[in-house]
Amino acid sequence: MCRSIKTLYNFEPPATEQEIRAASLQFVRKLSGFSVPSKANQEAFERAVDEVAASAARLIGSLVTTAEPRDRAIEAARAKARSAARFGT
Fold it and tell me: InterPro entries, from UniProt (predicted)?
Protein backbone atom coordinates (compact mmCIF):
# COMPACT_ATOMS: atom_id res chain seq x y z
CA MET A 1 0.00 0.00 0.00
CA CYS A 2 1.09 3.59 -0.46
CA ARG A 3 3.18 4.93 2.37
CA SER A 4 1.39 8.26 2.13
CA ILE A 5 -1.97 6.72 3.04
CA LYS A 6 -2.34 7.17 6.78
CA THR A 7 -4.77 5.75 9.30
CA LEU A 8 -7.69 8.17 9.58
CA TYR A 9 -9.85 6.44 12.17
CA ASN A 10 -10.03 7.18 15.89
CA PHE A 11 -8.14 10.47 15.94
CA GLU A 12 -8.91 13.67 17.76
CA PRO A 13 -9.78 15.84 15.92
CA PRO A 14 -11.51 13.48 13.45
CA ALA A 15 -10.33 13.12 9.87
CA THR A 16 -11.49 15.90 7.57
CA GLU A 17 -13.12 15.47 4.17
CA GLN A 18 -9.88 16.74 2.61
CA GLU A 19 -7.82 14.06 4.39
CA ILE A 20 -10.23 11.34 3.30
CA ARG A 21 -10.18 12.62 -0.29
CA ALA A 22 -6.35 12.80 -0.31
CA ALA A 23 -6.11 9.19 0.89
CA SER A 24 -8.70 8.17 -1.72
CA LEU A 25 -6.74 9.91 -4.45
CA GLN A 26 -3.55 8.07 -3.43
CA PHE A 27 -5.43 4.77 -3.40
CA VAL A 28 -6.89 5.31 -6.88
CA ARG A 29 -3.48 6.43 -8.17
CA LYS A 30 -1.96 3.21 -6.85
CA LEU A 31 -4.69 1.02 -8.33
CA SER A 32 -4.70 2.72 -11.73
CA GLY A 33 -0.98 3.30 -12.08
CA PHE A 34 -1.64 6.93 -13.05
CA SER A 35 -0.42 9.88 -11.05
CA VAL A 36 -2.23 12.08 -13.56
CA PRO A 37 -4.71 10.34 -15.87
CA SER A 38 -5.06 11.17 -19.55
CA LYS A 39 -8.00 13.28 -20.70
CA ALA A 40 -9.68 10.09 -21.92
CA ASN A 41 -9.48 8.59 -18.41
CA GLN A 42 -10.01 11.75 -16.36
CA GLU A 43 -13.75 11.27 -15.81
CA ALA A 44 -13.41 7.63 -14.73
CA PHE A 45 -10.48 8.52 -12.48
CA GLU A 46 -12.36 11.35 -10.74
CA ARG A 47 -15.47 9.21 -10.36
CA ALA A 48 -13.37 6.48 -8.73
CA VAL A 49 -11.81 8.99 -6.31
CA ASP A 50 -15.28 10.29 -5.38
CA GLU A 51 -16.63 6.78 -4.84
CA VAL A 52 -13.65 5.66 -2.75
CA ALA A 53 -13.86 8.85 -0.66
CA ALA A 54 -17.58 8.30 -0.05
CA SER A 55 -16.99 4.67 0.94
CA ALA A 56 -14.11 5.64 3.22
CA ALA A 57 -16.20 8.33 4.92
CA ARG A 58 -19.04 5.84 5.49
CA LEU A 59 -16.60 3.28 6.88
CA ILE A 60 -14.93 5.74 9.25
CA GLY A 61 -18.32 7.01 10.37
CA SER A 62 -19.69 3.55 11.11
CA LEU A 63 -16.72 2.06 13.00
CA VAL A 64 -16.96 1.79 16.78
CA THR A 65 -14.26 1.39 19.39
CA THR A 66 -13.81 1.56 23.12
CA ALA A 67 -10.27 2.87 22.75
CA GLU A 68 -9.51 6.49 23.51
CA PRO A 69 -8.98 8.68 20.41
CA ARG A 70 -5.35 9.15 19.46
CA ASP A 71 -3.87 12.63 19.45
CA ARG A 72 -2.59 13.73 16.04
CA ALA A 73 0.33 15.71 17.45
CA ILE A 74 1.56 12.79 19.55
CA GLU A 75 1.24 10.35 16.63
CA ALA A 76 3.11 12.78 14.34
CA ALA A 77 5.94 13.08 16.88
CA ARG A 78 6.16 9.29 17.15
CA ALA A 79 6.29 8.95 13.35
CA LYS A 80 9.04 11.56 13.19
CA ALA A 81 11.04 9.70 15.85
CA ARG A 82 10.62 6.40 13.97
CA SER A 83 11.80 8.09 10.78
CA ALA A 84 14.83 9.59 12.52
CA ALA A 85 15.74 6.21 13.98
CA ARG A 86 15.30 4.50 10.64
CA PHE A 87 17.01 7.04 8.40
CA GLY A 88 19.31 8.76 10.89
CA THR A 89 18.04 12.29 10.28
Answer: DUF2277
- Residue 5 pLDDT greater than 80, yes or no: no
Amino acid at position 42, single letter: Q
Q: 37-80, pLDDT tens digit by residue? A: 999 999 999 999 999 999 999 999 999 999 998 988 898 899 89
SS (H, E, C) 1-67: CCCCCCCCCCEECCCCHHHHHHHHHHHHHHHHCCCCCCHHHHHHHHHHHHHHHHHHHHHHHHCCCCC
- pLDDT recorded at residue 21: 95
Cis peptide bond prior to 13, omega within 30° of 0: yes
CB count, 10 Å around CB of 28? 21
27: phi then psi, degrees, rounded to nearest 5:
-65, -45
